[in-house]
Amino acid sequence: MKLTKVNFPKGLNPNSCFAVKDGWLFYRLADEWGWEYRLYNLSTGEEKPFVTGLEGRALWMFCVDGRLHVVYHLPDPKFNTYFTYCVVELDFDEGNIESAKVVRKKSWQQG
Fold first, then answer.
1. Residues 5, 25: Cα–Cα separation, whole Å
2. Distance between CA atoms of 76 and 78, rounded to whole angstroms?
3. What is the dihedral of CA 90, 20, 70, 53, to 10 degrees?
4. Residue 5 resides in a domain
5. How many separate domains does the chain show?
6. How confident is the model at residue 4 (pLDDT cuts 50, 70, 90)?
7. Over the stretch 63-111, which tens digit does the pLDDT of each residue have?
8. Could you tell me if residue 2 is inside a domain?
9. Does residue 102 sit within a domain?
10. Which of 4, 7, 46, 106 has a CB 3.0–4.6 Å from the CB of 41, allowing a cystine?
11. Which range marks the domain in which residue 70 is found?
12. Are 24 and 9 in contact (CB under 8 A)?
């Protein structure tokens, strides 16, 4: 499938963090701090919550080889101005698009 245009659901900021996988739009709710994400079926308009159990604010989401990757940051409790950045690779149980598990994680600090 070649993606050329995405019709965003009402209320979704097109500049928000999002990715497309298997006809589903994974997105972060606009102006939310935290892991508040939803799924939107691009064919039917069905919306569902997306649960991963991760905390932090996603900066980017992308899909490679059927796996969803998320780059996000967390405030570092030791330094008010430093952030810990993380990238995770998520995988889904077959037939369950609503939840994912972390299969790989890398983190680093920038300050």
1. 12
2. 5
3. -50
4. no
5. 1
6. low
7. 888 888 988 887 666 766 557 888 999 888 777 888 888 888 888 877 6
8. no
9. yes
10. 46
11. 18-110
12. no
* CATH number for the domain harbouring residue 54: 3.10.450
pTM of the model: 0.74
Contacts of 15 (CB under 8 A, 6+ apart): none
State the SS3 of the chain.
CCCCCCCCCCCCCCCCCEEEECCEEEEECCCCCCCCEEEEECCCCCEEEEECCCCCEEEEEEEECCEEEEEEEEECCCCCCCEEEEEEEEEECCCCCCEEEEEEEEEEEEC
Spell out the residues 6+ positions from residue 63 whose beta carbon is closer than 8 angstroms to its own. Answer: 19, 20, 21, 69
pLDDT value, residue 34: 52
Domain for residue 61, yes or no?
A: yes
